[in-house]
């Protein structure tokens, strides 16, 4: 199956009939369909699929003479809620297509090549970004993660077990990688307009901005919407509303990014002052100090406002990802490894499993494929097939170099 056929085969899985976007949450029936697709692609290529105890997958291309630390490629198949088709799947489909291209060139790797699909990269279900790769590398332990709960109160350990995995309580488990991975290369759709502005189909990542997710719990007092005088209210919605505006202002002032994209209101009735508002701040900047000072500034303003509103505020860091600098020599070699001139080397403010592997000490690189509008985490996310095929060929060249 070529790139376009693989893409068409994957396209209906988890797609919303109303928005055209994707709901590919981990350890669900949609996830099982994605895994079946992955197994079918691997099987068609005689690649041996190895799942780990939480559901990360690797399809191995390991000819008899291939030995030593493996070259891993791939990405993730899960999506944000109502996400696009490309964020994640482009890296997995391109990895299988790159294996095909290398075989058509008669290339036989002397090191094993693995095609990976990491689980829960988006953290859309359990709130921790790159959960699968964190567990696989040991950055997060199973003991730290297993009692995380999704929006319906389902615990991670139960979700994993219901999906047919769930023996991660095994004390001998050391994660999928446990010293076997020599390097990792992830191809990903670009999630901004840098490559469009530079007129390049493909780019190479220099690093990832540090970022984090912070839960803001505002607590007030439920009361009647008609009979409670305005001056008698303790309304957490007001504290939240001001905080969302403050976050936007602070991020603009600091040339950083701040987003409240998720809010939960209790009891969420039209004719009652809410008792509680929980909202999640996603904060990013180009240094860890700037992320910390952005979150501090927002927290300070939110606390002051809560004091005036008669509400209380508690802030909890749910997911923290430090600054990532990818291997500069590897990036430079990849950027120069093709006929059309050097690919641009650019930073990104989006998180990736590649960042987790890099932080775990694995030499890591990323290739980005141009996104004509820059839109991502949305049904509108797109990349032209011609650019995707340039990406496949760049990935194949990179794997050939690394696995020779
Ligand atoms: C993942 O795509 C993220 O940057 O949140
Ligand atoms: Mn994403
Ligand atoms: Mn992604």
At a glance:
By secondary structure, the chain is of the alpha/beta class. It contains twelve helices and 15 strands.
Question: What can you tell me about this protein's structure?
Answer:
- There is one protein chain.
- The protein is α/β, with parallel strands linked by helices and 404 residues long.
- The protein has two domains: 3-209 and 323-402, Zn peptidases (Aminopeptidase, 3-Layer(aba) Sandwich); 211-321, 2-Layer Sandwich (Alpha-Beta Plaits), CATH 3.30.70.360.
- Helix content is 34%, strand content 23%.
- The chain has twelve helices and 15 strands.
- It has helices at 3-10, 29-44, 89-104, 131-137, 142-145, 156-162, 194-198, 236-254, 288-309, 328-336, 353-359, 385-402, and strands at 48-51, 57-61, 70-76, 113-118, 181-189, 202-208, 211-219, 223-224, 257-266, 272-273, 276-284, 312-321, 324-325, 345-348, 364-369.
- Strands 1, 2, 3, 4, 5, 6, 13, 14 and 15 form a nine-stranded mixed beta sheet that branches. A four-stranded antiparallel beta sheet has the order 9-11-7-12, with helices on one face.
- Helix 8 (236-254) runs antiparallel to helix 9.
- The chain is globular.
- The two termini are 25 Å apart.
- The structure holds glyoxylic acid and manganese (II) ion (2 copies).
- Glyoxylic acid (GLV) is lined by residues 122, 129, 350-351.
- One manganese (II) ion is lined by residues 80, 87, 122, 377.
């Amino acid at each position: 199956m070529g790139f376009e056929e693989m893409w068409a085969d994957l396209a209906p899985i988890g797609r919303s009939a109303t928005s055209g976007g994707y709901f590919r949450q981990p350890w669900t029936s949609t996830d099982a369909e994605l895994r079946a697709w992955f197994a079918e692609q691997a099987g068609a290529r005689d690649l041996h699929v190895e799942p780990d105890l939480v559901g990360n997958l690797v399809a191995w291309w390991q000819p008899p003479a291939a030995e030593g630390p493996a070259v891993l490629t791939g990405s993730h198949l899960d999506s944000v809620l109502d996400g696009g088709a490309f964020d994640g799947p482009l890296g997995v489909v391109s990895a299988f297509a790159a294996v095909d291209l290398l075989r058509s060139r008669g290339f036989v790797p002397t090191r094993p090549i693995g095609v990976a699909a990491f689980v829960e990269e988006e953290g859309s279900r359990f709130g921790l970004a790159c959960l699968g790769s964190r567990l696989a590398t040991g950055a997060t332990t199973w003991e730290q993660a297993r009692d995380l709960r999704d929006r319906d109160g389902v615990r991670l350990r139960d979700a994993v077990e219901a999906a047919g995995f769930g023996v991660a309580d095994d004390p001998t488990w050391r994660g999928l990688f446990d010293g076997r991975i020599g390097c990792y290369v992830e191809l990903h759709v670009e999630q901004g307009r840098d490559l469009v502005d530079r007129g390049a189909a493909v780019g190479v990542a220099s690093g990832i901005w540090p970022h984090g997710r912070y839960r803001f719990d505002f607590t007030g007092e439920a009361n009647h919407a008609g009979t409670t005088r305005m001056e008698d209210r303790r309304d957490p919605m007001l504290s939240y509303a001001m905080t969302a505006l403050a976050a936007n202002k602070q991020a603009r002032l600091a040339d950083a990014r701040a987003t409240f994209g998720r809010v939960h209101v209790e009891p969420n009735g039209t004719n009652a002052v809410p008792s509680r508002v929980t909202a999640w701040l996603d904060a990013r900047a180009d240094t860890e100090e700037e992320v910390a000072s952005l979150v501090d500034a927002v927290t300070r303003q939110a606390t002051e406002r809560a004091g005036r509103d008669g509400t209380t505020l508690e802030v909890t860091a749910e997911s923290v990802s430090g600054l990532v600098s990818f291997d500069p020599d590897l990036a430079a070699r990849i950027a120069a490894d093709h006929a059309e001139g050097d690919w641009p080397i650019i930073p990104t403010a989006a998180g990736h499993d590649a960042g987790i592997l890099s932080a775990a000490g694995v030499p890591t690189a990323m290739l980005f494929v141009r996104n004509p509008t820059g839109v991502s985490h949305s049904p509108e996310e797109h990349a032209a097939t011609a650019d995707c095929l340039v990406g496949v060929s760049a990935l194949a060249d990179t794997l050939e170099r690394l696995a020779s």
